Every structure is written in structure tokens, then in C-alpha cells.
Amino acid sequence: MNLTRQEIGALNELCRQCRRDVLTVLHEKQSGHPGGSLSVCEILVTLLMKRMRVDTARPGWAGRDRLVLSKGHAAPMLYRVLAERGFFPKDELHTLRDFGSRLQGHPCMRHTPGVDLSSGPLGMGLSAALGLALGLRLDGSDARVYAVLGDGELDEGAVWEACMSGAKFKADNLCMIVDLNGVQLDGPVEQVMPQGDLREKFSAFGWHCVECDGHDVAALCGAYEQAEAVKGRPTVILAHTVKGKGVSFMENKNTWHGKAVDDESYAAAMRELEGVS
Amino acid sequence: MAKAIRDAYGEALAAYGAQDPRVVVLDADVSCSTKSAVFGAVCPERFFNVGIAEANMTAMAAGFAAAGKIPFVNTFAVFLTSMGLAPARLYGSYAGLPIKLAGAYGGLSDALDGPSHHSLEDVAVMRTLPNFKVFVASDEVQAAWLVKNAIEDAAPMYLRLSRDVFPRIYSQDESFREGEGKILRDGADASVLACGLMVSNALRAAEELAKEGISLRVVDLFSVKPLDEELVVRCARETGAIITAEEHGLYGGLGGAVCEVLCREAVCVPMGAVAIRDTHAECGSYQRLQKEYSLDADGIARVVRDTLRKKR
To answer: Which one, out of A164, A219, B188, B234, has a CA that is 20 to 30 A from the CA of A43?
Structure first.
């Protein structure tokens, strides 16, 4: 699926708008995670708007592709894109983290249409996505499962247990996307827990490995397509991103992992994300 | 000859699971011990051995459940309820996915392997998780029913099983219901509310105590959650003394559950507890451990006598 220049332009414009809206809600609520929401933006936009087969009128449709946002703290961006796709009204984003809201602090499958699996605690989503993929395969379904993980999350040992199982069971309907933004809560990934050569690691665990610019919508779509063509083993897309992408003073700063957006920063961020329209 | 609980479980899993294509079975490299391998031999395409990776196994089960399957998750009780706890909480308890955690080798049944392999906290741990149901098998017939029930009831569940042979209590056609205890022997002086192996130990204690003129009621509370609260209260009111008996630590298990009900209902009767008291055990034969930690019939009888003294 090659994107036209027009499609690329429209997706980039949507991403800019999503970033603005997410920061607006985080500023309004004085709560939530900006850094990882901004880095995962293009990944979620391309998956939900271009790649995944879903039916917003029937969120539980058995034939749908599944999305597991294992880095559940990026929920604000997930909700923004789910609303764009049509799972619920965009106005509802302003209820984020409110008591009684369908939009919980971390994704909850019981509350939110379009959320296929609850998440929050890191390190479990890939295993659950694998179970989903194998369950779908037992039914002869051609649906695909996408698991989005953070790079800090790769510290969790269970991720690597899941990698071994994914290769053993030849889960070629499973695609993991790692939002490689290089920064975790306490600091740079390289300092908190060096991860070495991830491409070599995932390859050694039996996965097909693709690398791309995680802010390049065309490259991401190409990577999803490549993943679907690979048979007999799962694919991991190492999507190189920037934490806090789009707001210069938030970029690559661990301090913006889960910090509330103050008035001054919010105004400055909105100026940077003004765009042309 | 009675059958080991694990054998009854494995055979039931194979029998019921083969008939229902929704059933999938996961094991963490102990399927020859848990007997989930019996299912694996019959339905290899629905059997997933994930290696020694309990957290991954439990989270994978959640994914299967989200795809409409009924996953049975198998390993030793102590590892399942520790390494598997985080995904059990997120996906089973919070998300409500119907994962069926089958804790093999419950209590002291892996006696000779020692305390690292004993499971004396599992019932307490799993009972605290909202939405989880908790059952403790007291004989082979009930163990088989628990498998059937787990397939029929779309709730997350913890089944506490055992490595060992338990004396046979029930006839093959016995019927059970969740949340419904079984009065196995009636008596007027005190009630032993037991689960698991302790049910048959309590029945033997009742025989002994009868010789001393003590009339003991014995109840199988295999359904620890939901608990038969009405029966618990009724036993306290009708017999005037309650003794809980479990192959488990003192805190938070069946005894805790019974106390919570009686306190809430303000039913104040003398109580005794047969359980392991805030300690790990040691290795030794299963029989020897039961004797050392006063879980055998003699141990139960002693606690009954002590409790009855408080009654007078």
C-alpha cells in the first residue's frame, strides 16, 4: 500500500491535530503522560486510520484486527485516534481520567470501545497479544494483531518470554511495534538499562525485524505491509521515534514522561504545533 | 482405589476439553506433573507448552480468552499465584477475562520438594482479587466437576488442586453448585468447615470424637469464593462452635473468609482454626508433614476439643 503525497499530507496534518488535542486535554486535566503519547502518535494514526480492519459500529466484531497498546500510559493518544476513527465522539476526550468516564487513566477494554485489551502494567501486553493471535488462528481467522510496546518496557523479562513463545508457535499474524523513543521515566534508556543491539536480539529470538522512522507515516505503512508478508514467524518493527515529538522543549526529556502540562508550557507547545491550517 | 487429584483433573480436562473447541490448555513445562499433558495428547493443536514462563503463560491465556477461548493455565500452585499474579490481576480480575488458573500441587502436597514448592498462601492471594472465584478440590469427583464447571461458567477462576491421592468422598454422580457447601456428616456440638484434603481428615476426626461422645458436623466448603455464607451462619447458630480446617496458612484463607462472615453477622461463637501458623513448613513425607503441623485427624480433634472447652 503506497501512500500518495496527498494521503501522507493528510496523515501528517491529522498527527499535528492529535498532538494539539492530546496536550490540550492533558493541560486541562493536569494529569496524564505527554512524552510517550507524542512519540507514539504516527504509529497509532497509521495503524488505526490506514492499516487495521475494524468496524466502529461493531467494536466487538470477531473479524476485526486487534490492537494492544501495551505501553498503556499513552492512552490519551490512543483515545484521540480511536475518536478520530469513529469509536466515540471527540468531545468525550475531555472526560479523560474523570470519575465515571469511559476514558480511564490507562486503557480498559470493559469501558472503551475500540480497546481490545486492558493495559497499564508494563511487560504483559505482548504475551496477551500472542494469545490473541493464536486464538484467532485456531478459528481460521485472517485477522491480525498489533502490539505496541515502549522501549523502556523491554526491561521486563516477560517480554522476552513472549518473544520465545511467539517464535515457537510461528505467530505470523502478530506484529509488535516498539516505540523506540530512547527515554524512560528515570532517564535515557541507555543509562537506566542499556538494551544493546535490539535488531540482533529480536532476530536471535526468531523474529523478523524491520526498522523505520516511527514518525514517517509512509515508512510505517510500508513496514506493516512487509510484516504481513512474512510467514512462519512474527515481525517486530523497531520504530525510531522522539519522546515528546513535535514540542521542542519536551523532546528527549524524561521529565516530560508523566508531568502535568503547565499553562506556560502549554501555550508554547500550541505555538509550535500551530501548522498551516 | 482413589485417584490422585491431578490425575482426575487431567482426565477431566481431556474429556471435557476434547468436546469443547473453545478450551485451550497452557502449561509451563510441568505438564507431566500437572497432568495437563493428558489433554495435550488428545488435543495437541489446542495445547501450548510455553516453557518455564509463568507470567507469559498467564498473560497469553488472557489473550486466548479475549479471542473467545476458555484457557486453562497450569503449573504448580505456588508459582502460578506468584509469577502469574500480575497478569491474573490485570486480565482476569480487572478486565474480567475468563482465565482458569489450575494450581497443581496445592498445600503441602509437593511435600518432599520442601517449602519452596509448598503452596500455603495461594487461596488467600487469589481470594483478594475482585471477580475471581476460588475453589479447593476435596476429592477426585469434585476435581472433575470443577473442570466442567470452569468451562460452563465464564468467570476468572482459581482451582486449587493437589499432587496427591485424597480419600474418595463423593459418588460419581454427585452434583455440586458454586457457593453451596456440603454437609457430609451432621452433628450437634460443633461444625468443622473444611476444604481440600482437610475434609476427609475432618471426617476421620469426627469418627474419633464420636467415641468420646462429641457430635461433630463436617462441612465441605470447596467453594471458598463465593462462600456459602448462609450455611456458615447456620452452622454457627445450630452447633454453637466453629472450627475451620485448611491445608493453608492461617491468614486470609478459608478461616479468614468464615471469620469475616461471622463477624459481619455478629454471630459470636467459640472458634478454632486448623491451619499452618505463620511459618513455612519443612520437607518430609506428606503424612509426616500433616502430623507435624497438626493438619491430620488428631490435630483437628485437638482443636475441636479446645474449642469446645471455650464453649462451656
So the answer is: A164
Q: Mean pLDDT of residues grouped by 10 in chain B (312 residues)?
A: 92 97 98 98 98 98 98 98 98 98 97 96 98 98 98 98 97 97 98 98 98 98 98 98 98 98 97 97 97 98 97 77
Which residue of chain A is at minimal alpha-carbon distance from B91? A118
Which of chain A's residues have a Cβ under 8 Å away from the Cβ of B27? Answer: none
State the pLDDT at residue A2: 83
Dist CA B63 CA A146 (whole Å): 12
The CATH number for A5-272, chosen from 3.40.50.970, 2.40.30.10, 3.20.20.70, 3.40.50.170, is 3.40.50.970
Asked if residues A148 and A70 have their Cβ atoms less than 8 Å apart, the reply is yes
pLDDT at B312: 67
Report ipTM (2 d.p.).
0.95
Q: Does A158 contact B59 at a Cβ distance shorter than 8 Å? A: yes
pTM: 0.96
Res. A1 pLDDT band, cuts 50 70 90: low
CA distances A58 to A16, B67, B131, Å, are 28, 15, 26
In angstroms, what CA-CA distances link A64 with A46, A56, A67? 16, 10, 10
For residue A122, report the phi and psi dihedrals to the nearest 5 degrees.
-80, 155
Instruction: Convert the pLDDT of each residue in A226-257 to its tens digit.
Output: 999 999 999 999 999 999 999 999 999 999 88
How far does chain A reach from its first CA to its final CA, in angstroms? 27
Question: What is the mean predicted confidence (pLDDT) over A155-175?
Answer: 98
Q: Does domain B5-160 correspond to CATH entry 3.10.20.30?
A: no
Show residues of chain A in contact with B62, CB under 8 Å: 117, 124, 127-128, 131
Considering only CB atoms, which chain A residues are within 8 Å of B91?
A: 117-118, 124, 128
Q: Which positions ≥6 away from B290 have C-beta within 8 Å?
A: B108, B197, B201, B296, B299
User: Nearest CA to CA, how far is A122 from chain B (Å)?
Assistant: 10
Nearest CA in chain A to B88: A124
Based on C-alpha coordinates, what's the Rg of chain B?
A: 19
- Please identify which of the residues B11, B54, B246, B247 carries the catalytic annotation: B54
Task: Find where cell 452434583 sits.
Answer: B175
